[in-house]
UniProtKB/TrEMBL annotation:
One of its GO terms (cellular component) is plasma membrane. GO terms for biological process: antibiotic catabolic process; cell wall organization; response to antibiotic. GO terms for molecular function: beta-lactamase activity; penicillin binding. Keywords: Antibiotic resistance, Hydrolase, Signal. The active site is at S73 (acyl-ester intermediate). This is Beta-lactamase. InterPro entries: Beta-lactam/transpept, Beta-lactam/transpept-like, Beta-lactam_class-D_AS, PCN-bd_Tpept. It catalyses: a beta-lactam + H2O = a substituted beta-amino acid. Residues 52-243 form the Penicillin-binding protein transpeptidase domain. It is an enzyme of class 3 (hydrolase).
Length: 272
């Protein structure tokens, strides 16, 4: 009996419990490592990595991973998809004109291609795109794509992902990314191909790292995202990080901490 109890205690963190949505396992065996990574970057929150080959989610905090937050600029993913599907934008080279007004960052104060606007996370550019898509198209496509709980109204059309009641969880982010990657979204192949180019953060002979950051300001705290996927050979892994800073007086490392933390987590899992 003692030996059996010890065996159950030993393997319990590895087995976790079933996720009823896709019969995947929830694994906390990297909890200490992921927490240490976040601590080293002076943030707290959750790292969530999904291995579809093993049908296993890995996280340090599954409660956090199932908590909804504003999508912030991670919403540029569905926003870009809808823009391409509705022909609001024709290609990654489509130029979005600067209106000459002062913007939050100097890098936004110029004409930008669609690809440049996505990678620079140009908020005014994608607000213009959302207005051009329109309320009905936006709502219809979000329903079609099963992108959850966005508060799309005339009054919120160009900011519902930045302020207000829209919410998405890390689990939902990964679900959406997996459906995109595995061609289960009802979108054109050409749209998917264009999006894959927009996503790309780093490409080497060994792997490709793709994703999108996000940062909202009107939660209880500053809230930061990085969502995406990592391809190595024929394998793909999905990730969603959501964090808040521990010390708002030292925010200079908050933005870069998101990508650094995900890279370190993948490395600790011997994936990167």
């Amino acid at each position: 009996m003692i030996r059996l109890f010890f065996l159950v205690f030993l393997i319990a963190p590895l087995i976790g419990c079933d996720n009823p949505k896709n019969n995947s396992k929830l694994d906390e065996s990297y909890k200490t490592i992921f927490n240490s990574i976040l601590d080293n970057h002076n943030v707290k929150g959750s790292i969530l990595i999904y291995d579809p080959q093993k049908k296993t989610y890995y996280s340090n905090d599954f409660d956090w991973a199932n908590t909804g937050f504003l999508p912030a600029s991670t919403f540029k993913i569905p926003n870009a998809i809808i823009a391409l599907e509705t022909s609001t934008i024709s290609s990654d080279g489509t130029v979005i004109k600067w209106d000459g007004k002062k913007r939050a960052f100097e890098s936004w104060e110029k004409d930008l291609t669609f690809r440049e606007a996505f990678q620079a996370s140009c908020v005014p550019c994608f607000q213009e795109i959302a207005r051009n898509i329109g309320v009905e198209n936006m709502k219809n496509y979000l329903n079609k794509l099963r992108y959850p709980t966005m508060d799309v109204r005339v009054e919120t059309l160009d900011n519902f992902w930045l302020y207000g009641d829209s919410r998405i969880t890390q689990m939902q982010q990964i679900d959406f990314l997996q459906r995109f990657y595995t061609k289960k979204l009802p979108i054109l192949t050409s749209t998917r191909d264009k999006m894959l180019k927009l996503f790309e953060i780093e490409k080497t002979t060994d792997y490709t790292l793709s994703g999108k950051t996000g940062w909202s300001y009107n939660e209880k705290d500053n809230n930061g995202w990085l969502v995406g996927f990592y391809e190595k050979g024929k394998r793909v892994y999905y990730f969603a990080l959501n964090v808040i800073p521990k010390d708002i007086n030292h925010m200079e490392q908050f933005a870069p901490s998101r990508l650094k933390a995900i890279r370190e987590a993948l490395h600790q899992m011997q994936l990167l």
